[in-house]
Amino acid sequence: MNLDNPARASSADRRGSDILELAPREGGYVTSVAWFVGLCLGLAVVGAAATMAAPALVPFLLALGPAAIVVVLAMREGHGALGALKRSLTRRPADRRWYLVLLLPIAWALAVVGVAVVLGEPTEGLFAELTPTALIIPLVVLLPAFAEEVAWRGFAVPRLMTVMSPLRAALLLAVPWTALHLVLHLPGGVNAGAELWPSVLSLFAYSVILTWAFVGTGGSVLITALVHTGLNGTVPLMWGVNAELSWAVRAVIAAVIAIAVVAVAGKRLGARTGRMPVAPAAPLEAQA
Question: How far apart, in whole angstroms, are the C-alpha atoms of residue 55 and residue 51?
């Protein structure tokens, strides 16, 4: 596909990358993102109010709620915006090397364990708590991860990229995304009592990492959501590490990974193009 002249692209390429090059829209797309962020912050208020009554349900509310919001906003936009979101859920990158990014969460989790050992964590029984029931964790977090990614990366990132670079979009969206997650730290919440700074650092790092994966795969919510699932689903690998130590180390390592991503992919992430950079989509027959 000729990235400088989309008119020369084949029909298969155009259909495969329709979420990446948004149709011109009067007033731009920033207003849609502003509505999205505002409604998500309202959702955070609802989540905060619900924390004492049903704390176990609040994480799912904060994950699934933004997806419901973008469905409504995409329907209001029209011009095939909703269909483009749906297609992003199954889009696969043409460059198969991007599938290696799915190994990143495992490497991250094992690095946390390794650093913890260097810092004095005993090695005996380090993985003793890793029972077969741990396999349930990735299944539990799978749907919330897809819901979050279709909203924050699939919907918000391409629209912000019409006026700013992917990196700026990632950092800007990290602010409301973090605000939603901090609701979980309220008294009675699932993260009550845990330090705040590792959550903030982790979420900003994740936003950069996931935006990099989304842009690099040509707008694949599928791959990005699987990476997100891995970041949550590999937590059992760290169960044998002291919880407070693990909480801090995992945030620092996530930040190191994000910095490395910016260093390596800085040109792609830092460029403002007025549209989302298009990576060639996998042929339609390969996606069937």
Answer: 4
Q: Residues 26-65: pLDDT tens digits?
A: 557 899 999 999 999 999 999 999 998 889 899 999 999 9
CA distance 213 to 149: 11
Beta bridge partners of 93: 281
CB 210 within 8 A of CB 150: no
Helix axes 58-77, 136-151, angle to 10 degrees: 30
214's tokens: 């989304």
Helix (H, G, I), strand (E, B) or coil at 189: coil
pLDDT above 70 covers what percent of the chain?
84
5 has a pLDDT exceeding 70: no
Residue 206 C-beta-side C-alpha neighbours within 13 Å = 28
From 181, 201, 184, select the one nearest 193 (Cα to Cα): 184
Q: What is the mean pLDDT of the chain?
A: 86
- What are residue 193's phi and psi, to 5 degrees? 95, -20
Q: Is the pTM of this model over 0.85?
A: yes
User: What is the residue whose two structure tokens read 């910016």?
Assistant: 262
Kindly tell me the burial class for residue 48, based on how many C-beta atoms sit within 10 Å of its own C-beta (0-12, 13-18, 19 or more): middle
Q: Which residues are CB-neighbours of 35 under 8 A, at least 6 positions away?
A: 73
Q: For residue 239, give Cα distances in angstroms to 91, 112, 126, 247.
A: 33, 11, 8, 11
